[in-house]
Amino acid sequence: MSDSKSGTSIKPRHFKWSVNDLVATITLNRPERKNPLTLESYRELTDTFIALQTIADVRAVVITGAEENFCSGGDVHDIIGRLIEMKKAEDRTRLLEFTQMTGDLVKAMRACPQPIVAAVDGICVGAGAILAMASDLRLGTERSKVAFLFVRVGLSGADMGACSILPRIIGVGRASELLYLGRTMNGVEAEKWGFYNRLCTPESLMHDANELASMLAHGPSAAHAMTKRCLHNEWSMPVDEAVDYEAKMQAECMMTNDFERAYIGFVEKKTPVFEGN
Question: Would you say 56 and 91 are in contact if contact means Cβ atoms under 8 Å apart?
Fold first, then answer.
């Protein structure tokens, strides 16, 4: 990653942002309404994840919500109300612009080289569930509630890449059930189905998420970025093509100083200090 920018240069207005020890924390911060997204926060989140492609002092990201909820999806009045107005005006162009804009957030999250850890408590529904889905790792609580609610408002489950990404996390049958029915998964079921990597207590959630993110941040971050890139790019590749692709990517990693640092650490019986280059 380029060192042209610093994480402190990001100053969002529609969510909280902090950087500590190479880990950035994004906190959706409208707790009185369970942290819904607005048009402005969609755009600002997308811009933030794009900016992270050139920020060297952030090597992992935690995304969470304020005060015991993750995200209640798109704001009913700010977003749904406006979409109904567009529908009444038969403005298909603006409707498509909106759906493409929301999809741009997922694309920015997947293109962001840093691993993203979602720390999910409480409500995680609609676009909030998509944010968790688009993250690389997910920690949740037993009391959390995850639902892809689009069918409940008369829309398809095909929103922001859900029909592509969710089956790869939990399987086609389970994803189909959630996307057709719009029903809620509690935390225990979400872990059982593989949506969560593991469950935490509400009290330990942020500590555990930051600990995981810190482990990633202090690892070989250039190699982690390559792993993320390969996980994404190989979804549509035949196996033989993926093997050849990984050979090229791994050879690139072997040119990094972190690869040499790991070898020297092994020889000297010391823990290597990875610097991301």
Answer: no
Q: Phi and psi for 211 in degrees, rounded to 5?
A: -65, -45
Is the pLDDT at 6 greater than 90? The verdict is no
- Burial of 33 per CB tally in 10 Å (0-12, 13-18, 19+): exposed
Q: What angle do CA 110, 192, 215 make, to 5 degrees?
A: 50
Domains of the chain, start order: 7-217 (3.90.226.10), 221-267 (1.10.12)
Residue 112 tokens read as 């962001």
For residue range 45-74, list pLDDT tens digits in order: 999 999 999 998 999 999 999 999 999 999
- Tokens (6 digits) for 221: 């971050």
23-28 β-sheet, strand order: 16-20, 23-28, 60-65, 116-120, 137-141, 198-200
Question: Is the torsion defined by CA of 276, 42, 13, 134 positive or negative?
Answer: negative
pLDDT for residue 1: 42
Asked if residues 140 and 121 have their Cβ atoms less than 8 Å apart, the reply is yes
